[in-house]
């Protein structure tokens, strides 16, 4: 089978990407160094989204709630409970997992268009909750996590995540772990079932797989990954605000994944990176940033529904995972 | 003001909301019912209607009533034209695939919003009502214009009902909604019906916006609330059901008006959205709809 022969190039490619991203920090100028750290964290968000949208074929319009569950889970634990960084990160993941489980149990009762609307509405409720409890969340304005709270000592080692180099390495570490986890998931039996569900749910069920249970696991894992991105964002960049829970942050991961290529492991980072720089470069000429986003969405869905890596895979590299 | 009059005021405000909502939601419901397309840009057609109404009345000057009446004709026509172009250029090429059209209409939403921001600006601008007449009740005076919105909406809904059930156009639309392929086999130009329905849906939103803009200023972000509320109405009322849309609009409009007067508006929206999401989860055909085939 070609898939098995493709194992070596697949792992080599991923190892090269991980190594390359690690080495880039020594050569990049200061500005791009900061951008790449941010892009890697956002790419984790996109990878979590891709697991559900690309591989399982479930189009959610509410993933901002999972990202901000991690963001607020970690941010509020540091700010109001005085937790240190690592337990706070864990709190973010736990909140994301719990929310994923509840939303999954409810939303997976629907399919197709209803699933999109239901996830969008739950996310809107979450957004309104962050506005309503403004005493703790400071609503739209948000709050900044003070620098001393973003430092951690493990044993004799001391990490200051407000330092660009440490921050970059932390973002890189999270990105690498999630990339490897995604790769292992999509190559596992569970991952194959998810793809089968995307292609033909009825047939998968007829073959004896529990489609609901598999989809539920996918929603929860996707939620945990997105929450990890949110929690890391809060800790690394020190800002927590309800903008991250708004509809726009549910659309952005969709855009990144569509651009990079749905159902490809490396598509999310590629899409996030491209989009970040497209907006960054065009903002020098025009402030019409939403126009670019809108146009990109329409053009992609019209002419490149498989995104950059999806097209490359179709044309040349059939083994890309 | 004591509780009774306060409740009356809340009810009147709720009725006005319901009147505008019924028109907007009817547009969304038609597009979904006939074309099976979830138009996320529907709220932006509403916003465009309001912004164009401001542009028309400002350009014309003179007595506010003349500008307003002209806006009531011109603004929906332009919005309908834009919707028609968008449908031909984008939605038709996507073959009305549900997921692709959602992504594409999200794209339209951003483009229209940015266009309004660039050409119209970030300010909220008022439009003069066509007439100023206060109806004096024993407890408070109430704007006659607001009541005329309710009247206009009722007339338009009756007209819509008439067109849908008694005319050939309505018959063709219902046939397409019921079974696209059979309709095509019977010589109904399904493709043109789709284009017409999409434009009509956008025009209904624009009419609603022109009616509401004298009491609520035109702003480039004003489309989001009508979009979410229309979704809510369409879901509760059952998709593609005119009667359900009207009943749900009155229900949502009144409860929104009353809850917002007595409690926090954010809390009201939160509870309403959550309830509707749960309706969609546990009773996908809506509260008044029947099970789809």
Question: What does this molecule look like?
Answer:
The complex is a heterodimer of chains A (321) and B (293). In chain A, the strands form 2 sheets. A two-stranded antiparallel ribbon of chain A has the order 1-4. In chain A, strands 2-3 form a two-stranded antiparallel ribbon. Chain A has helices at residues 2-5, 7-27, 30-55, 64-81, 85-107, 112-132, 134-137, 164-187, 189-199, 201-206, 211-237, 248-260, 267-282, 289-303, 307-315; strands spanning 143-144, 151-154, 157-160, 239-240. Chain A contains 15 helices and 4 strands. Chain A has one domain (2-246): ABC transporter involved in vitamin B12 uptake, BtuC. With 293 residues, chain B is mainly α. Chain B has a two-stranded antiparallel ribbon with strand order 1-2. Chain A binds chain B through residues 59, 61, 106-107, 109-110, 112-114, 116-118, 121-122, 124-125, 128-129, 131-132, 247, 251, 254, 258, 288-291, 293-298, 300-302, 305, and chain B through 36, 38, 90, 93-94, 98-100, 102-104, 106-115, 117-118, 224, 228, 231, 235, 264, 266-267, 269-270, 273-274, 276-278, 280-282, 284.
Order of helices and strands of chain B: HHHHEEHHHHHHH
Order of helices and strands of chain A: HHHHHHHEEEHHHHEHHHH
Q: How many runs of DSSP E, i.e. beta strands of chain B?
A: 2
Residue runs with pLDDT of under 50 for 5 or more positions of chain B:
none
Number of strands of chain A: 4
Query: Helix- and strand-based class of chain A?
Result: mainly alpha
Major sheet attributes of chain B: 2 strands, antiparallel
The best one-word shape of chain A is: globular
Oligomeric assembly: heterodimer
CATH topology of chain B: ABC transporter involved in vitamin B12 uptake, BtuC
CATH class of chain B: Mainly Alpha
CATH topology of chain A: ABC transporter involved in vitamin B12 uptake, BtuC
Number of helices of chain A: 15
The most extensive interface between chains reads: A-B, 38 and 41 residues
User: How many separate helices of chain B?
Assistant: 11
């Amino acid at each position: 089978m070609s898939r098995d022969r493709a194992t070596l190039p697949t792992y080599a490619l991923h190892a090269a990407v991980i190594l390359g991203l690690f080495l880039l920090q020594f050569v990049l100028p200061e500005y791009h160094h900061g951008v790449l750290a941010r892009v890697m964290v956002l790419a984790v968000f996109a990878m979590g989204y891709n697991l559900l949208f690309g591989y399982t074929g479930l189009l959610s319009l509410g993933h901002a709630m999972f990202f901000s569950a991690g963001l607020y889970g970690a941010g509020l634990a540091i700010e109001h409970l005085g937790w240190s960084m690592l337990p706070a990160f864990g709190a973010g993941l736990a909140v994301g997992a719990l929310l994923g489980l509840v939303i999954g149990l409810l939303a997976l009762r629907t399919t197709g268009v209803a699933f999109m609307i239901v996830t969008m509405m739950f996310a809107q409720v979450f957004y309104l909750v962050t506005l309503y409890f403004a005493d703790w969340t400071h609503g739209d304005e948000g709050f900044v996590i003070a620098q001393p709270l973003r430092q951690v000592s493990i044993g004799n080692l001391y990490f200051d995540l407000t330092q660009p180099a440490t921050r970059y390495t932390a973002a890189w570490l999270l990105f690498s772990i999630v990339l490897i986890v995604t790769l292992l998931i999509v190559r596992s039996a569970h991952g194959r079932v998810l793809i089968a569900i995307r292609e033909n749910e009825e047939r998968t069920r007829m073959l004896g797989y529990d489609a609901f249970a598999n989809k539920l696991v996918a929603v929860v894992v996707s939620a945990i990954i997105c929450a990890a991105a949110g929690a890391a964002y809060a800790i690394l960049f020190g800002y927590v605000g309800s903008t991250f829970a708004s509809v726009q942050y549910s659309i952005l991961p969709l855009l990144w994944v569509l651009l990079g290529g749905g159902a490809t492991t490396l598509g999310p980072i590629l899409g996030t990176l491209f989009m970040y720089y497209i907006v960054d470069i065009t903002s020098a000429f025009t402030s019409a940033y939403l126009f670019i986003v809108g146009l990109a969405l329409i053009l992609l869905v019209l002419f490149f529904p498989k995104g950059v890596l999806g097209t490359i895979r179709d044309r040349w590299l059939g083994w890309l995972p | 003001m004591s509780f009774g009059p306060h409740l009356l005021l809340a009810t009147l405000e709720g009725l006005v909301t319901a009147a505008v909502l019924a028109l907007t939601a009817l547009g969304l419901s038609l597009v979904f019912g006939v074309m099976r397309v979830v138009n996320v840009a529907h709220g932006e057609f509403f916003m465009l209607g309001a912004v164009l109404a401001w542009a028309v009345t400002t350009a014309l000057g003179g007595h506010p009533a003349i500008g307003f009446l002209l806006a009531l004709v011109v603004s929906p026509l332009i919005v309908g034209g834009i919707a028609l172009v968008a449908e031909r250029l984008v939605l038709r090429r996507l073959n009305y695939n549900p997921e692709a059209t959602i992504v594409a209409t999200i794209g339209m939403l951003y483009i229209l919003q940015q266009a309004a921001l660039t050409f119209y600006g970030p300010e909220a601008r008022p439009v003069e009502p066509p007439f100023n007449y206060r109806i004096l009740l024993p407890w408070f005076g109430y704007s006659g214009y607001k009541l005329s919105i309710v009247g206009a909406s009722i007339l338009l809904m009756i007209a819509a009902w008439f067109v849908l059930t008694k005319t050939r156009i309505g018959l063709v639309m219902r046939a397409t909604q019921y079974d696209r392929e059979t309709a095509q086999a019977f010589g109904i130009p399904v493709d043109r019906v789709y284009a017409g329905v999409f434009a009509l849906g956008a025009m209904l939103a624009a009419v609603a916006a022109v009616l509401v803009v004298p009491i609520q200023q035109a702003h480039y972000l004003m489309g989001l609330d009508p979009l979410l509320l229309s979704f809510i109405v369409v879901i509760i009322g059952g998709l593609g059901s005119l009667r359900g849309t009207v009943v749900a609009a009155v229900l949502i409009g009144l409860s929104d008006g009353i809850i917002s007067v007595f409690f926090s508006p954010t809390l009201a929206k939160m509870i309403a959205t959550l309830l509707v999401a749960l309706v969609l989860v546990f009773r996908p055909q809506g509260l008044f709809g029947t099970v789809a085939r």
